[in-house]
Structure prediction request, 560 residues.
Amino acid sequence: MIFSHLIKLGWALALSACFSTGQPSGCGGPWPDAACRCEQRGTDLVPLGDAAVPQQAQALSGGTVRIRVAHEPGSLLSLLDVDPIIKQIADHSIFESLVRTRSHSDGVTPELALSWEAIAPQAGFTFHLDPNARWHDGQPLTAEDVRFTVERLLDPGTGSVLRHAFEDISDVIVVDAHTVTLLLDRPRPDFLRALSALSILPAHVFGRTPLNQHVASRAPIGSGPFRFDRWLPGQLIELTRTENWRGPRPRIDRLVYRIVPDLRVAFDLLKRQDLDILPDPPMSRAAPRDDWRLITYPLPRVEAWVYNVSSPVFNRQAARRAVGLLIDTEAIRCSILRCRAERIDNLALFSDPDPANANGEVPQTFDPQLAKQMLIADGWIDHNGDGVRDRRGVEFSFDLLLPDASPDLKRIAVIVQNDLAQVGIQMRLALVSWSIYISQLQKGQFDASVIAIATTPPFSPLSLFHSRALGRGYNFGRFVDPELDELLDTLREESDEEKRRDTLCIVDERLTELQPFTFTFRHIGAALINHRLGGVAIREGWLEERTLFWRQVPDQGGRR
Prediction:
């Protein structure tokens, strides 16, 4: 799946879990509240972003934290791959960016760049690098590394998944060893925030070798608070603390990301205390107990169904809109998702970084009768009586591409599959490994799929729907609409917030009409955490590993 916008600085959230009735519970509003018929599960409040971490009076230094990841990434370079696990492990831990976002606020904070200034109105920025920044092999990090990274990013031969987000960089000028200027050829109000997603790579390591062919893509040399130690294929990826890092040292000595595709196996490892952090536990088993606690937090991503418009089934908008009307998001939210999700049906709702600004209830869109009317009007009728609608010799039968590591997603798909069958639409589930899932999405080898869209500010729908994003962005469904292209270009360059909102509303109207995607949920993250782990804070939808520490518990004793 792919990636999404959320939360205000310091905002904390504790969630409840709905009784699994399989029916809508009447819970409304953007976040579950007293109106939702849910049982209280005793979840922890989690400070977000730059909020203070829990009191460290009993904090221990050292030890190892073992974290489950659901699949093995192809590399550890987020410049090459959309895999969120790469960002989780490497970005801002092994590698650093020029700047880093301040949680989900509109600002950024220094990382490799200590300061910066704009050049004329929106013409670019000059960055002043930290002279104490060093690569993990001891070499100094310089402006040449920034130039190298940007040039590789923009080179079509690199095949970077981030290229579309930075294609308006017109030049990179090295002023001196610790000063670099990035010039732009168009206004970019969101440019600084976008830079937070661009990890700077060491020029002296990669040289002229293609990034995806270099050994350092899987054994990287970075500049961050943790350094790469080892990768045992199919087993684990291990990082160790950078002892001479220029910033505050993390308290944890070692991070071990254990590759455990089977969620049941991961749960057993947690019970045996062979795992310390289990993200995305099965909702039915995510109860706290003596050994661990359950935390919940808003995720910077939303979920959507994407349709391949080159498919003979989905090359007409009526078919796409009909399927969207047959996804019962409220029933799914209050049964399988146990109320740990907010229903989303348009860009305006999830592109605002503060969910408090979008607290109107999303109307229920599940409407089988309207779906039938639209299908009949478009010529989709069961002409041969086999129970499946057809139009001009094409049956309304398609495959839904899904990664096989998400049991909840499979359960959701089965519910939709049954509702589609009731109106004469046949949907088959195509469950594949993560690597095949990503490959088929990028190649457009699917009929429909479910993806996660990152909405970490700055969110831009250009990467999802613009024709320029075909083959190098997230426009997996091969959707092209000149009118929408023009609107997205206007939105990208507009700095006036009121005008941006107006344009976004027009974009929403166009997307609702054409329906290349059906937006469904903004999910709530959950994780089971060893009860002895302190310093738990969330940034951009994931734990801030550098703030973690083991704490002394009198009745348990010992050190990890």
